[in-house]
Design goal:
By secondary structure, this protein is of the alpha/beta class. Helices cover 31% and strands 23% of the residues. It contains 12 helices and 22 strands. The structure holds iron/sulfur cluster.
């Protein structure tokens, strides 16, 4: 059940020991691009279980003063934001003002929060009913039992050892689900990449002074190593998916030959489940070969549907935005399910020109699904890197989603790669 506040909640701030307080002289405020916004009460939900709090060093929280009818700083402590649990899309960032020399924030999403009558609220909506990454789905003891069982069965398999590390050291939900023998299994393959994303979660140059949140896989597994563990998963798991292209690797298309061999081998043994590729879609010829080999779905990551913002963020090496679109076109020609992994950045994602560009792509390429995923990046860093000025006010993320839903009723919306049940129901 969605719990909403009956009236606007108050601003939350923190002290240096991470104790949280309310400032009842100010209303909780969100941010869209560079604008401060008081969220409507129907844009707020009780903070979902499994979400985290961040205290934001070097940042003064901003709230709305109902007496002066102005936004103003709260000088009692640090700004606070929520990292909202997966399956929820954020509507506003937390509102703050950087002090001089505020350190760059690590690669997470910083969503607005507030406090009212003993409850935290945040500005987000549940976009995907799938429970696969809900925190109450995981029992780490069972994950570790699954790890021991599979390592005993495939002791030489380096890919399995890599995924086991992800499940037991990084607590990666996708890896943990694999060892719980269900749903989507993550199979990284490529140590290299041909993009240079500003907010890359698996490689950050020293000069940025922030860490990548995951380490890249250091080897390319063999097709046999992949097939050995993919086949039993597809055969036995409920609603199974095997997914290439993970947070702990570069771009899987740089290992497309290995992936193709693995797909051919897998499909000799089982027709069950979905074989998916999360990708930057930079190599149309590779996408074509993979589709011909039996790839069922691709998820293409986009920070923006506009070339100028794509180029500034991805800094593509030896490929272009046009190659990405061509890959999408080829995938659709092969009747492969295409999702856009569309990074939600309030203010830019819902800007009228972005909305127009997104509509054009959906319409032209008959995209099957939008995955509305929160953009994990320091918003000020991203905005200044793009040289973005929000001359045109955003139409609101919630409004954008609802307009896209109205215009493209066949489009599926969510957060995760769908299994066969959804693909068969929604594919045109
Ligand atoms: S495409 Fe992925 S791996 Fe490559 S730079 Fe971007 S985020 Fe990093």
């Amino acid at each position: 059940m969605v719990i909403r506040p009956g009236k606007p909640p108050y601003l939350v701030y923190s002290d240096e020991h991470d104790n949280l307080f309310e400032d009842s002289s100010l209303l909780a405020t969100g941010r869209s691009g560079n604008r401060y916004v008081v969220p409507a009460t129907d844009e707020l939900i009780e903070l979902p279980e499994g979400s985290d709090f961040f205290h934001l060093p070097g940042r003064v929280p901003i709230g709305y003063d109902t007496v002066t009818k102005n936004f103003r700083p709260c000088n009692k402590g640090f700004a606070v934001a929520a990292f909202v649990t997966p399956a929820y899309s954020q509507l506003y960032f937390a509102a703050w003002k950087n002090k001089k020399n505020a350190p760059l924030l690590p690669l997470f999403a910083y969503t607005a929060i507030g406090w009212l009558k003993n409850k935290f609220y945040t500005t987000a909506l549940r976009i995907d009913p799938d429970i696969r990454q809900d925190c109450n789905q995981f029992n780490q003891k069972l994950v570790e039992q699954g790890v021991s069982k599979l390592i005993k069965k495939f002791p030489e398999n380096r890919l399995l050892q890599h995924i086991a590390h992800c499940a037991t050291v990084y607590y990666c939900p996708a890896a943990r689900n694999y060892f719980l023998f269900r749903w989507e299994a993550p199979f990284p393959t490529s140590p290299r990449c041909n993009s240079q994303c500003l907010g890359c979660i698996s490689y950050q140059p020293k000069k940025h002074n922030i860490s990548a949140t995951q380490n890249r896989i250091a080897f390319i597994p063999t097709p046999e190593e992949i097939a050995e563990i993919a086949i039993p998963h597809l055969e036995n798991a409920p609603n199974p998916i095997v997914s290439f292209g993970q947070g702990c690797e570069g771009e899987p298309l740089l290992a497309w030959g290995v992936i193709m061999q693995a797909i051919i081998e897998i499909r000799k043994h089982t027709t069950k489940g979905i074989i998916n590729l999360n990708t930057n879609a930079s190599m149309p010829h590779a996408i074509e070969r993979l589709c011909k080999s039996g790839l069922d779905s691709i998820r293409v990551s986009l920070n923006s549907a506009r070339k100028k913002f794509y180029d500034l963020y991805y800094k593509p090496k030896k490929y272009s935005f046009n190659d990405v679109l061509q890959s999408i076109q080829i995938a659709r020609q092969f009747n492969c399910w295409v999702s856009l992994n569309y990074f939600v950045f309030p203010g830019l994602t819902d800007e009228p020109d972005e909305y127009k560009a997104l509509r054009n792509i959906i319409k032209k390429y008959k995209i099957n699904m939008l995955q509305w995923r929160n953009f994990n990046i320091d918003p000020d860093w991203y905005i200044s890197h793009l040289g973005y000025t929000d001359k045109k006010q955003g139409i609101g993320i919630r409004n954008l989603i609802s307009k896209i839903k109205d215009e493209f009723p066949y489009l599926y919306h969510g957060y995760f790669n769908p299994g066969r049940n959804i693909i068969m129901k929604y594919k045109k």
